[in-house]
């Protein structure tokens, strides 16, 4: 089961969706998702790779577990780069099936690092193999992803004709296995083209993998992130509280509320 997208969306809400007028209120709420671990801080603060002024790299991790605290694989791994030098936001995908050197476990698929040692081992593995300095991280499971999309009243995605069959397979699978639309009248996709996908449909779109390649799946994941960013930029401030309440149980990060709020002003 691919969880993937959930990930970015969470960070998007935290970094972009917080208005300055509500900082105090959100500070209190965001405090509940911060993890403080000396080993994690050591990994993040002692990178041997180049650190560039004006560049902040945040690792976004989507896991395939219903419970955010349980061991699991990382199905989606993306580096969100906030670049104040060029005033841009960049997203880089790490293929889950990349064979890498995982400290203490030899050469294995990148997705296994999180299952073996949580976010600390994943951070160490990515930094060592890709020679990149990571500053922060956020981990999300699939429940948060589905809820966010639904609160935003869906996102617009250009569905290709050859994606429909597998998309519908995962839409049905999501209800029967993941229970993400339990009790709902699940709607499948009948035609290609630009259309609005709800939460469980967007999750199913993110899970498509067999009709092209892993690179195709990564592209679809980024399409969902981009669509969500666009939708978040126009969301009513009155929905911020609802968005946060839905995502907080499915999210954990090393970032303090102060850090998140500072990044929001940068963005």
Q: Tell me the strand order in the biggest sheet.
A: 3-2-1-6-9
Write down the secondary-structure element order: HHHEEEEEHEHEHEHHHEH
State the low-pLDDT regions, or none: none
Work out the helix count: 10
* Biggest beta sheet attributes: 5 strands, mixed
What's the Cα radius of gyration? 18 Å
Give a count of the beta strands, DSSP E runs of length 2 or more.
9
Describe the structure.
The structure is a single chain. With 267 residues, the protein is an alpha+beta fold. Helix content is 44%, strand content 19%. It is built from 10 helices and 9 strands. The protein has helices at 6-16, 23-30, 38-45, 112-130, 142-151, 164-178, 199-207, 214-232, 240-247, 257-266, and strands at 55-63, 74-83, 88-93, 99-102, 106-109, 136-140, 155-159, 193-197, 251-253. It has a 5-stranded mixed sheet with strand order 3-2-1-6-9. A two-stranded antiparallel sheet has the order 4-5. It has a two-stranded antiparallel ribbon with strand order 7-8. Strand 4 (99-102) and strand 5 (106-109) form a beta hairpin. The two termini are 32 Å apart. The model has no long low-confidence stretch (mean pLDDT 82).
């Amino acid at each position: 089961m691919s969880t993937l997208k959930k990930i970015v969306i969470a960070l998007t809400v935290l970094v972009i969706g917080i208005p300055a007028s509500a900082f105090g209120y959100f500070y209190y709420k965001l405090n509940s998702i911060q993890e403080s671990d000396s080993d994690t801080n050591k990994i993040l603060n002692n990178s041997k790779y180049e650190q560039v002024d004006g560049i902040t790299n945040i690792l976004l991790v989507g896991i395939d577990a219903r419970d955010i605290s349980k061991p699991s694989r990382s199905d989606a791994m993306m580096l969100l780069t906030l670049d104040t030098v060029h005033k841009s936001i960049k997203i880089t995908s790490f293929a889950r099936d990349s064979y890498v050197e995982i400290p203490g476990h030899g050469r294995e698929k990148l997705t296994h690092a999180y299952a073996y040692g949580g976010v600390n081992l994943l951070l160490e593995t990515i930094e060592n193999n890709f020679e990149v300095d990571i500053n922060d991280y956020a981990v999300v499971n699939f429940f948060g992803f589905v809820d966010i999309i639904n609160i935003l009243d869906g996102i617009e995605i250009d569905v290709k004709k050859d994606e429909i069959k597998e998309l519908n397979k995962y839409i049905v699978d999501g209800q029967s296995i993941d229970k993400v639309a339990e009790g709902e009248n699940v709607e499948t996709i009948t035609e290609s083209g630009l259309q609005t996908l709800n939460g469980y449909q967007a999750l199913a779109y993110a899970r498509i993998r067999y009709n092209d390649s892993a690179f195709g799946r990564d592209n679809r994941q980024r399409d969902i992130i981009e669509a969500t960013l666009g939708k978040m930029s126009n969301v009513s401030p009155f929905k911020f509280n609802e968005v946060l309440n839905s995502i907080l149980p499915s999210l954990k990060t090393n970032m303090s509320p102060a850090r998140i709020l500072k990044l929001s002003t940068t963005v």
